[in-house]
C-alpha cells in the first residue's frame, strides 16, 4: 500500500488510486476540475518522496524542478510514501473588475491580478474561489491589456459559472493559477496562412490569438471560423467584423448547424473550412473548443496536409463532478 | 574479426531528419486507410507519431532496438482486438509506398521490407 502525507496526516491509497482521488475520498478538499491531467487545477508540490514521471507530463521545467505534480495523474507505486502540499504559493490573488453578458449563454469575466501574470494570449488559467472551487478557463485578453478576460459558458447547475452569473460582483476576490497550455501564436513566418477554428467558448483563446498575431504584424491570410449550433451561440460578431474591416488579411467566418443567414454560413464546421480553405498545405492552425470536434478537425487537417508541428489544439474537457458538487461539465 | 560495417538504410536516407519527414507521410497513409486506421487512432497524435517514427527508425536499421519480446508485448492488446495478417500486409504496403514516394531506391526499399517482414510473427503474437 502507498500512502500520502498532507498537512501532518497520513492517508492510505488504494491500489492504483491517484493522490487526488485518495485525498478527496478521505475528505481532504483539493482544487480540481478535469481530472485528466490537462487543466492543472489539481497542481500540488511534493516535499518528500518520489513523484512518478507521468504526474509531471506537460508541466514547465521550472515547476518540475520544484517538485510540482498533477495530483490526478499521480499514482505512487505500492509501498511508497509521498509528502505533499498545495500549490498556494503559485496562486496570484485577483479581483473581479467587470462582469457582462456576451450572449445569453456566455459571460465575460474581467479580472485584475494583484501582481502581473506573464502569459501568452490563448493559454489558460485555473480560477480558484475562496472555498477552493476551481475551474479552468482560456484567456481571451492580450498580456499588455490591463485585465484578464475569460469567456465563461453558463452551465445548467454549474458551480463556478452559476456563482459568477448570479452571486459574484465586481470587487470580489479570487485566485488565479497558471498559465498553462501551448495553444498560442509564436512570431515568425509572417506570410504563413493561419487557420483558427473553434466552437462555443473555444472562441476565447482564438480571440486572443488572432489579435496577438495581428499585433505582431502577421501579414499572411488569417482565417477565423467560429461554429455554434444556432446563431444564438455566436458572440463577439460585431467586434470580429470590425476587426476584419481594419485588417484586410483577416477573414471572419461564423457558421451554424441550423438557422444560417446571409451573414452566417450554415453547415458543419469542417465542411465550411474545406469549402474556403481546400488546400491548407503548409498552414499553421489552432483548434479550440468541444473535445471530440477539435480532435476530429485535427485529424482531417493533418490528412489534408498540415504538419503536426503546425497544429495546435486545446480540446476543452468537462469538469468531473464530485459527490458533493454539481457538474460544471464543458466548462471554459 | 573486424569488418567495415555497411551503412544502414537509415544512414543512407539521412538519419533522424529523414525519419521526421517520412513519419508524417506514413501516418497520413495509415490514418486514411479504413481497414487499419482504428489501430492508429490516438487522442495524442504526437505520441502516436513518435511511436511510428520509432518503428520507421527500426525497420531502416537506425538506432532503435526492439526485442521480439517488446514487439509481442506492445502489440498484444491489438492482437486481442483482431490484428491479423491482412492488417500487417496493409501497414507493410503503406511503408513501401512511403519509401517509394520519398524516392528511396528499390534495393533499399527491399532491404527495409525484409526487416519489416521479419517482425511479422512477433507483431501478430505467433
TrEMBL record, chain A:
It comes from the Bacteria. Residues 1-88 form the 2Fe-2S ferredoxin-type domain. One of its GO terms (molecular function) is oxidoreductase activity. PROSITE patterns: 2FE2S_FER_2, FAD_FR. Residues 89-186 form the FAD-binding FR-type domain. Signal peptide: none annotated. This is 2Fe-2S iron-sulfur cluster binding domain-containing protein. It comes from Myxococcus xanthus.
From TrEMBL, chain B:
Heme binds at residue 75. Transmembrane segments: none annotated. CDD domains: TrHb1_N. The lineage of its organism: Bacteria, Pseudomonadati, Myxococcota, Myxococcia, Myxococcales. Binds 1 heme group per subunit. It comes from the Bacteria. Keywords: Heme, Iron, Metal-binding, Oxygen transport, Transport. Belongs to the truncated hemoglobin family. Group I subfamily. It comes from Myxococcus xanthus. PROSITE patterns: GLOBIN_FAM_2. This is Group 1 truncated hemoglobin. InterPro entries: Globin-like_sf (IPR009050), Globin/Proto (IPR012292), Globin_bac-like_CS (IPR019795), Hemoglobin_trunc (IPR001486), Hemoglobin_trunc_I (IPR016339). GO terms for molecular function: heme binding; metal ion binding; oxygen binding; oxygen carrier activity. Its cofactor is heme.
Amino acid at each position: 500500500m502507498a500512502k500520502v502525507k498532507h498537512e501532518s496526516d497520513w492517508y492510505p491509497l488504494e491500489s492504483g488510486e491517484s493522490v487526488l482521488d485518495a485525498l478527496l475520498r478521505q475528505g481532504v478538499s483539493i482544487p480540481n476540475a478535469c481530472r485528466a491531467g490537462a487543466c492543472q487545477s489539481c497542481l500540488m508540490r511534493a516535499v518528500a518522496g518520489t513523484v512518478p514521471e507521468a504526474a509531471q507530463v506537460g508541466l514547465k521545467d521550472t515547476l518540475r524542478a520544484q517538485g510540482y505534480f498533477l495530483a490526478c495523474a499521480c499514482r505512487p507505486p505500492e509501498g511508497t510514501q509521498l509528502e505533499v502540499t498545495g500549490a498556494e504559493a503559485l496562486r496570484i490573488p485577483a479581483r473581479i473588475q467587470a462582469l457582462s453578458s456576451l450572449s445569453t449563454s456566455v459571460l465575460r469575466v474581467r479580472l485584475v491580478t494583484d501582481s502581473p501574470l506573464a502569459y501568452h494570449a490563448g493559454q489558460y488559467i485555473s480560477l480558484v474561489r475562496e472555498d477552493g472551487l476551481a475551474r479552468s478557463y482560456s484567456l481571451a485578453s492580450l498580456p499588455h491589456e490591463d485585465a484578464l478576460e475569460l469567456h465563461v459558458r453558463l452551465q445548467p447547475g454549474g458551480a463556478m459559472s452559476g456563482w459568477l452569473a448570479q452571486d459574484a460582483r465586481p470587487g470580489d476576490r479570487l485566485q488565479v493559477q497558471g498559465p498553462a497550455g501551448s495553444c498560442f501564436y509564436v512570431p515568425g513566418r509572417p506570410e504563413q496562412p493561419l487557420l483558427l477554428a473553434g466552437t462555443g467558448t473555444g472562441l476565447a483563446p482564438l480571440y486572443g490569438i488572432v489579435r496577438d498575431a495581428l499585433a505582431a504584424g502577421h501579414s499572411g491570410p488569417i482565417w477565423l471560423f467560429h461554429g455554434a449550433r444556432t446563431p444564438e451561440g455566436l458572440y463577439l460578431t460585431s467586434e470580429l467584423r470590425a476587426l476584419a474591416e481594419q485588417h484586410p488579411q483577416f477573414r471572419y467566418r461564423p457558421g451554424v448547424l441550423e438557422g444560417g443567414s446571409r451573414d452566417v454560413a450554415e453547415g458543419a464546421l469542417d465542411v465550411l473550412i474545406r469549402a474556403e480553405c481546400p488546400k491548407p498545405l503548409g498552414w499553421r492552425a489552432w483548434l479550440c473548443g468541444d473535445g471530440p470536434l477539435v480532435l476530429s478537425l485535427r485529424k482531417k487537417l493533418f490528412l489534408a496536409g498540415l504538419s503536426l508541428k503546425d497544429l495546435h489544439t486545446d480540446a476543452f474537457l468537462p469538469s468531473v463532478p464530485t459527490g458533493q458538487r454539481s457538474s460544471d461539465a464543458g466548462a471554459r | 574479426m573486424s569488418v567495415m560495417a555497411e551503412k544502414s538504410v537509415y544512414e543512407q536516407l539521412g538519419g533522424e531528419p529523414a525519419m521526421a519527414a517520412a513519419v508524417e507521410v506514413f501516418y497520413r497513409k495509415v490514418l486514411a486507410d479504413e481497414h487499419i486506421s482504428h489501430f492508429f487512432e490516438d487522442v495524442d497524435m504526437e505520441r502516436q507519431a513518435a511511436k511510428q517514427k520509432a518503428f520507421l527508425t527500426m525497420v531502416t536499421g537506425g538506432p532503435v532496438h526492439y526485442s521480439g519480446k517488446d514487439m509481442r508485448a506492445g502489440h498484444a492488446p491489438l492482437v486481442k482486438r483482431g490484428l491479423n495478417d491482412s492488417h500487417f500486409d496493409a501497414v507493410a504496403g503503406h511503408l513501401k509506398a512511403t519509401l517509394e514516394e520519398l524516392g528511396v531506391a528499390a534495393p533499399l526499399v527491399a532491404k527495409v521490407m525484409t526487416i519489416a517482414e521479419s517482425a511479422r510473427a512477433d507483431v501478430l503474437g505467433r
